[in-house]
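This section describes the prediction task in plain terms. A model, or a person checking by hand, is given the sequence of a single protein chain and must write out its three-dimensional structure as a string of tokens. No templates, partner chains or ligands are provided. The sample shown here is typical of the held-out split.
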Amino acid sequence: MPGSKFYHFTASGLFYGVGTLGEAMTDLKEGGFVWLNYYQPSREELNALIDTLGIHPLSIEDCFDEKQVPKIEHFLNNTFIIFNAFTYKDKTLYVDEINLFIGKNFLITVSGHNSDGRKPLSDIEGIIENDPSGVKNGPAYLMHKILDYLVDQKYEAFDTMEDELEEAEDTLLDNVSGFKPMRLIHLRRNLVSLRKSLYHEREILVKINRLDCPFIPDKAIVQYRDIYDHLAKFFELTETYREIETSLMELYTSLLNNKMTRMSNETNTSVRRLTLIATIFMPLTLIASIGGMSEWTMMTGHTNWKISYPLFLLAMIILAFVNYYLIKRLEIRDRRRSKKLADNGNDNETG
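The expected answer:
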């Protein structure tokens, strides 16, 4: 498969590429160890490892299962590890599965089957070429180099997510109406996926550091402890980011409720004013309609209109002021009653 590359590391620390699996096995007889770096291999290519290196068939099946979580499994002549590479781009978290087989004189890496064209191990070959002495002691040191490279990629993902959290907070404080809570919900899902992956990856390093893997010597454990420390830090960061996300959601809800309350108060004020106007003018309208039909003139006599109509208008003005006074007294009484209830509630809470 194009993209798959095989290397032979000699006992002196030098390494060079080999063309096929058969050539790698032939060179392995001269000593050292081989690194088989598969990218998007076919099932037939990996099945060839069953007879060649004694890889368990169930491990081959796991390499093509996209629902696997990070884990470590021990077999007679190799240890199988599933690790994840994180990429956070365009506010989307991509999780690429990396499968590793480590034995006494070989390391196999399988990647790309669920990567949609991404190459999670694209730069690792250049890193090893620049520092071949760091991996000359065996497959365990090479695997540490690869895991350390994957952990460094996680740094970039967490930095991007932190920037997104800060951006969301600034947007929320500047314009609560324009804020989109789906951004936080999407980020929460990504954090849950990160936490799940990091939890299992941390368990893998715990088992390695307690010497469960027979193919990782004691001298290499110190380097793997450093990877464990980084994963533990990332796991704590996921918890911190989840708390920040929850706080932002609560802040968004609070600010939105405050804005809705303010709008409701403005609406209540407008309704109160309209009610006051309607209450005052409804009886005046009734009286004016009666006077407009000449009943008042008929009752007082048509010769007394110069006195009756001014009295009629005066009565309307007095009635309007009386209505206004009664409504204001009712509002003052309601406010006092509400304040008294609030004060009693505060006293009960204090007590």
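For orientation: The longest helix spans residues 221-292.
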